Amino acid sequence: MTSLAILSFITAGAGAQSLDRQEQGIRTTIATTREAQIGYLQRVVDIPSSTLNFDGVRKVGAVFRASLDSLGFTTSWVAVPDAVGRAGHLVAEHRGKSGAVRMLLIGHLDTVVEPAGASWVRQDSTARGIGGADMKGGDVVILYALKALQAAGALREMNITIVFTGDEEHPGEPLADARRALIEAAQRTDVALAFEAGNRSDATVARRGASGWRVIASGRQAHSAGVFSQNAGYGAIYELARILDAFRTQLAGEQYLTMNAATIVGGTDVTYDTVAISGTTASKLNIVPSHAIAHGDLRFISAEQLTRIRERMRAIVAQHLPGTDATIVFRDEYPAMSPTPGNARLLAVYDSTSKALGYGAVAPLDPGRRGAGDISFVAPLIDGLDGLGALGGGTHAPEEHVDLATLTMQTERAALLLYRLGRRPASQFVRKPSSTSQN
Ligand SMILES: [Zn+2]
């Protein structure tokens, strides 16, 4: 390294560790808008909007849409095909300087629980309320970060696309249609920042993907006295048991890979509903069973791992016991958000921002501790960071609460992350082909 390079490295390091004047201004604005921000969060939390409450989801969307309009965004409500059966999504675009990084901010408008009405109860530094943390809090972090950036005159040059989905908690199907608006937004942006509920000292650089699988085994219906013989064979249930046991003994234990056999049904008269995940069986104790079905999920960290494990599962299935047959079918659900070098670089910016604000270091969250989310759908296309939203707990439950004491911290960290990333050239965020393990 030349002395010039060392000098510029030190300068960049020092800059990252303190706030410039514009950043100080952003911080001041966020402090002064704190009560307004909490009031705004209360307003959107008090509109019940569980995924299938389309009217509620659209109402919450309309509140954010009006606010983003007034910040100079071009907004639209993107409907999904009727067959998908969901409320649709809010999409907002802000064009700034050409050549600067284009950032995709991801939120969602829906909740799991449907409260009877207004659910907000403020108790000192926390508030109970459905969606307070997951993730109307994150949506409000985005909005007040943008307001502060605008007040500082920094928003004008920034390229931002916002997608607030209306069905993150219970996506419509087919997923290709339900997530089209999000995926198309990723095709015209360079980095994704998702504001699902966060933590003080970690952020999400990887989320495991999810796939469904179903094994359907068959056997020759025959008298039980002949089981294990050449004529009667082993029956569908022994065949299915062989397969599941081989999954466990041969595939369990790989890092970030899990497979859960969720349900099983077998006998001679078997019904199984793959949507309701519900089945019935009837048999007699003296009959070698003809049908058996097991259904489960698979969690994985990369497309490579998914492909490889599916191949091994298929190979295990193919080693049939005498007189039996079996097939396995897979269903794509969420792709994995793999821990790419680009994701780590985004975390490094967030980490230095947090330190500069005096909030301490931010480390990567263990991917095994986070399920799939909307950012997973864009992770095959662009690098990203998740877990930038509000702090809280009890999500997906009636006791959900949001931490108001750290709302300002999250908003400051978000605003400065956008500020520091937003001025960089898009060319810095082009993903290297070698790091693109997704298809
Ligand atoms: Zn969520």
Lateral arrangement of strands in the main beta sheet: 1-2-6-3-7-18
CATH topology of the largest domain: Aminopeptidase
CATH class of the largest domain reads Alpha Beta
Structural domain tally: 2
Mean residue pLDDT: 94
Question: Over the alpha carbons, how many angstroms does the gyration radius reach?
Answer: 25 Å
Proportion of residues in β-strands? 15-25%
Instruction: Please tell me the CATH architecture of the largest domain by its name.
Output: 3-Layer(aba) Sandwich
Q: How many helices?
A: 12
Structural class: alpha+beta
Which stretches are low in confidence, meaning pLDDT under 50 for 5 or more residues running?
1-15, 435-439
**What would the principal axes of the Cα set say about the shape?**
elongated
Largest sheet: 6 strands, mixed
Q: Give the fraction of residues assigned to helices.
A: 25-40%
